[in-house]
Amino acid sequence: MATQERLTSRPFLALCLIAVLILVVYQTATISRERALADLQYRTAADLGRYSLSLQQELDRYKDIPKLISTHSELLNPLLHPGGDAEARASLYLEKVNETIGASDAYLMNSEGMTVAASNWDKEKTFVGRNFAFRPYFKDGISGQAGRYFALGTTSKKRGYFFSYPVHYRGKTLGVIIVKIDINDIENDWNDPLTDILVTDEDGVIFLSTRPEWKFRTLTPLSQDDLQRILSSLRYGEESLEALNVIKRKDRGDGTELVTLVDGDWASSESLDGVKTRQYLQQTRQVEDAGFNVSILANIKAVERQVFTNVLLASFSYGALVFLLLFLFTRRRVAEQREQFKRQEQQALESSEARVRAIIDNTHAGLITLDHLGRIESFNPTAEKLFGYPAEDVQGKYFSHLLAQQDRAVCWQHITTSTDDDTELMIEALGCREDNTQIPVELVIGRMIREGDRYFIVTVHDMTERKQYEQKLRKARDMLEHRVDERTEDLSRANARLLTEMEQHKHTQNELIQAAKLAVLGQMSAGINHELNQPLTAIRSYADNARSFLDINKPEPAQENLGEISLLTERMAKIIGPLKEFSRKTTGQLSPISLQAAKDGAMAIMYGQLAKAQVDIVWPENAAEVYMLGDMLRLEQVLVNLISNAMQAMDALSSPRIEISASQQNTMMSIAVRDFGPGVPERDLEKVFEPFYTTKLDKQGLGLGLSISHRIILSMGGQLTVTNHPDGGAVFTVLLPVVPSSVQA
């Protein structure tokens, strides 16, 4: 009947396993895709900012040049006195200016829009004599305003960005000076194979792109009125301004869109009725005062590849787990059958082994640990009773003090022999009691390695009673000695395993503390990137200016710019320095530290997050006078964790505030961190320091921060407690020993 039930349950179990596999694959694919898209959005946002900044900086280099040269007399003369040599001199002047600034063209128009002088006066397609009154940049300039405009040249048929400025004389606008720059070099610098960059005007027309076939197309279809208006302005010549073939758009709610485009040139990543398409993650940023937008389209093929890899890994892990469980289940059944046979075989021996087992189970051995020189470190109560010495009287003395003279040489030779093996010494000897009497004992001296040095553990058994009953137990002696040897070996191996596990636990705890510190650094990475981005941008601007000054043989301003770059690098070093100190592993040594030093370290690490969240944090005014005994790096880590938790507890407050106070309580220094959040539920006050306990609903952490902080404070001889303030909010209190007066002196 049981066999039939197992057979009928197997198909149901298989269906359950398949259902769980489908659920695991679905959840893995969903979570992996969202995380991968979030990572892609973060990376492309940084690239978009960099491209936008470089484009804006390139344009800003020329924006004030028309204003600068508009007052030059060579430009006023042809407007005041048309004809003659004034126009030729103005053209020569503009040619020289154009060569100096590296622009595409520079030209001067009168109040009717007629070009009277141009830097390309000697070219076949010169602007001289041509009327550009229809251009918006002329209309802005003649109305007394500075103009900016992108268009396709009607004469040169080349793309250019135009800066215009009115030419004034005695309060009257006589004409407009225009500087045209070539933006092809900017486009050539954008060569990331995984992303495409687009620059569009206010109508959505693409005039810069890393994809040549997308130039002079639109992101969305234009209305007939807008299309006719753009064509009549000759802004883009005879280009048809067709829209890109967008199949689908999906708004992700974070300022980005998933865009599916028809792509006949590349291998398809998605097929819709035989049409080859490509899917992108699109982000757009407006360039201030420039009249255009910069968009970045990141191919999500890498996202799909990562999702596939994660799904494959999850499926493999799930399959391995299922096979492991089946293997363990089968192994357990085999073990149960073997145990059943063993019980049947051992029933005949139980009566004869009962007496021996009772002797072994009730034997209490004395345990003594020795240092590498053979001196006693610890003495358990059984050993105290056996030898008659209190533990404090024998600590630091040589172990041979407890043995008769004739037995000391063998034990001393085993302790002093340098060997890497784990050979144990087991002998029968005479032990010397405090009252000078001797008792027969059995000694087992085993070696163990601790912190790179050899130590020893001695197991002592009182043989007095065994000697007295030796004649009566002669028949059982062989079996008893065999059992004693096995028990001794098991105990030695258990002790060795225990020491190994203790070392592994200590190492794991240190690594967990280090991982928590690195997790804090990961949370602060966005703020640090923002802080470093500003000096990096300034360094680039100063470097460009220095190069420009050197090109025009002005070393003094160039040296000033290089000096500013040096100061900015010092500022970046000050930002990164505390993070390097915070991330390194601590030595574990306790020393006097001041609350001011711990405050400086914690605030250097948290200032970015505090500023971003607009948190008001209050420290004691006498922080420089508060001293305690501890480890600086570990105390900084605890303070960073408590401040970070307080900030997260006050996410819903418009004006978050954290108060930190210090006071001395007898021999302990108390540091209290209070927030003004909802506090800790009363039922959970005793659980907050347990591993994996957390109140965060959005899974922002694993619940290890407070547990690790609690262990850190305990390791420094202190305590970490939590209470709720009567006026609201939670109060976490750190207690550390005060610095002894002898140490302060």
Task: Report the sheet-strand fraction.
Answer: 15-25%
Oligomer: single chain
For the record, what CATH class of the largest domain applies?
Alpha Beta
Number of helices: 19
Just name the CATH architecture of the largest domain.
2-Layer Sandwich
Given helix and strand content, the structural type is alpha+beta
Helix percentage: 40-55%
Task: Return the CATH topology of the largest domain.
Answer: Heat Shock Protein 90
Describe the overall structure.
With 745 residues, the protein is α+β, with helices and mostly antiparallel strands. It folds into four domains: 65-182, PAS domain (Beta-Lactamase, 2-Layer Sandwich); 185-303, PAS domain (Beta-Lactamase, 2-Layer Sandwich); 366-494, 2-Layer Sandwich (Beta-Lactamase); 587-744, Heat Shock Protein 90 (2-Layer Sandwich), CATH 3.30.565. Helix content is 48%, strand content 22%. Strands 6, 7, 8, 9, 10, 11 and 12 form a seven-stranded antiparallel β-sheet that branches. Strands 2-1-5-4-3 form a five-stranded antiparallel β-sheet. Helix 14 (525-551) runs antiparallel to helix 15 and helix 16 runs parallel beside helix 17 (632-649). It is elongated, with a radius of gyration of 41 Å.
Features:
single chain, 745 residues, alpha+beta, Beta-Lactamase, 4 domains, 19 helices, 48% helix, elongated
